[in-house]
Design goal:
It is built from 11 helices and 17 strands. The protein has 372 residues and is α+β, with helices and mostly antiparallel strands.
Length: 372
C-alpha cells in the first residue's frame, strides 16, 4: 500500500515538472525562435552585462558584409598588439578577409578582431563607431561596443536579448553562417602564407544534435558567455547566456526546452486563388494557386503574423508553365520570415492578331483602370 501511494505521489509531482522552464546557472539568459525572434524563455534578459568574445559576432558580421572574402591584406604590428586569444598572426603576414572571418569565429582571435578594426574602421575607436551604428540600425537599444574583441571595458556591454537578436541577424549572412557552423577550417596565411588548421572553440557543435553556431566568450570580469544556435528540420533556436558557470549544460537544457515547445503553425489558403490579367495572351488572365506556409512557433496563439500576396497588376504573354509570377510572404511583426513563389500552372501563348499600338495601349489602360 505504501509503495502504491509513493508511486502515485511520485507521478503527481513529476507531472508538474513536464514543460517547466529550464534551470540555468547563468546570471542572464534568453532563448528565442531563430525564425521569428519570439522569446521562448528568459532570465534577466535585459540586464546590461559584459559579453567577452561574443562581441566578435558583430566584428565578424561587419567583415562578412564587406563581401570581399578573397581580399588579401598585410598585417601590421599595430593590428596584432593585443593580449588574449589569437589565430597566430604576426606583423608582415598576408591574410585574406575569409581567413580573418574564420580566425574570429573559430579561434576567437583578438589579433583577428584588431586587424579587422584597423582595416574597416581605421582605428579601434573608428571601428567601435561602425559597431555601434550597426547596433542602432538593428534596434539593439541596450548595447554599446568599445572593443572589437570583447576585452573588458566598463562601457562595453550588451544584454542577452540584444545579443540573441544580433546573432539572429548575423546568421542570415551566408558567409557568417558557414564559418560559425564549421567545426574545423583549413586556412592559408603567414609570410609567406602556409597551411593552418583551426578548431572551433564552440563545443556544442560536437555535443548537441543540430547545433550550427555561434560564439563563445570568457574574461574574469564577464565570466563564461555563450551564444548558440541549433536547427532541426524547420525548427530553429538561438540561445544566449551571460555569466554562466555551467554554460554548456545551460544551453543543452534551453535548446531541449525550445524544441519540445515548438508546434507547427500553418497558414493554409486552401482553395484561394489569384486571377492576374494577361496582356496579348490567348486567354486574358491566369489563375494562380496560393501555397500554404508553415512555421514552427512556441505559442500557437501568437497573433503577430500576417500574410501578403505580391503579384504584378498584369503579366505579358507568352508565359510558360512553371514561370514565377509573384510571391506569397509570411511576416512576423512586419518582417518577412518566409516566402513561396507563385507559379504559372499552364502555358499561355501570345494571341496572334493584328493590333495597332493604340489598341495595345488601350488594353493596358483598361486593365489599369480595373485595378483602381
Amino acid at each position: 500500500m505504501k509503495k502504491t501511494i509513493f508511486f502515485i505521489l511520485f507521478c503527481f509531482l513529476f507531472s508538474f515538472n513536464v514543460g517547466a522552464n529550464p534551470s540555468v546557472s547563468a546570471r542572464s539568459a534568453v532563448l528565442i525562435n531563430g525564425t521569428t525572434g519570439e522569446v521562448i524563455f528568459s532570465k534577466n534578459q535585459s540586464e546590461q552585462l559584459p559579453m567577452a568574445s561574443t562581441t566578435k559576432i558583430m566584428t565578424a558580421l561587419l567583415l562578412a558584409e564587406e563581401n570581399t572574402p578573397q581580399k588579401q591584406v598585410t598585417v601590421t604590428k599595430q593590428m596584432v598588439t593585443v593580449e588574449g586569444s589569437s589565430m597566430g598572426l604576426l606583423p608582415g603576414d598576408t591574410v585574406s578577409y575569409n581567413d580573418l572571418l574564420y580566425g574570429l569565429l573559430l579561434a576567437s582571435g583578438n589579433d583577428a578582431a584588431n586587424s579587422v578594426a584597423y582595416l574597416l574602421g581605421g582605428s579601434l575607436e573608428g571601428f567601435a563607431k561602425l559597431m555601434n551604428l550597426k547596433a542602432k540600425q538593428l534596434g539593439l537599444l541596450h548595447t554599446n561596443f568599445v572593443t572589437p574583441s570583447g576585452l573588458d571595458n566598463e562601457n562595453h556591454y550588451t544584454t542577452a536579448y540584444d545579443l540573441a537578436r544580433l546573432a539572429q541577424y548575423a546568421m542570415k549572412n551566408e558567409a557568417f553562417y558557414t564559418a560559425a557552423s564549421s567545426k574545423n577550417a583549413v586556412l592559408n596565411y603567414g609570410n609567406p602564407p602556409y597551411r593552418r588548421q583551426l578548431t572551433n572553440h564552440n563545443k556544442l557543435l560536437n555535443l548537441y544534435d543540430g547545433a550550427v553556431g555561434v560564439k563563445t566568450g570568457f574574461t574574469k570580469k564577464s565570466g563564461r558567455c555563450l551564444v548558440s544556435a541549433a536547427r532541426r528540420n524547420n525548427e530553429y533556436l538561438i540561445a544566449v547566456t551571460l555569466s554562466a558557470p555551467n554554460d554548456w549544460q545551460d544551453h543543452k537544457a534551453m535548446l531541449d526546452f525550445g524544441f519540445e515547445a515548438f508546434v507547427d503553425k500553418t497558414f493554409d489558403f486552401k482553395e484561394q486563388t489569384i486571377n492576374v490579367p494577361v496582356v496579348s495572351g490567348e486567354i486574358d488572365r491566369v489563375t494562380v494557386n496560393i501555397p500554404s506556409l508553415t512555421v514552427a512557433v512556441a505559442n500557437e496563439k501568437n497573433s503577430d503574423f500576417s500574410t501578403e500576396c505580391l503579384v504584378p497588376k498584369f503579366l505579358y504573354a507568352p508565359l510558360k508553365e512553371g514561370d514565377i509570377v509573384g510571391q506569397v510572404v509570411l511576416k512576423y511583426k512586419d518582417e518577412v520570415i518566409k516566402s513561396e513563389n507563385l507559379i504559372c500552372e499552364k502555358e499561355i501563348k501570345i494571341k496572334i492578331e493584328k493590333k495597332t499600338f493604340l489598341d495595345s495601349f488601350f488594353q493596358i489602360f483598361l486593365l489599369l483602370i480595373k485595378q483602381i
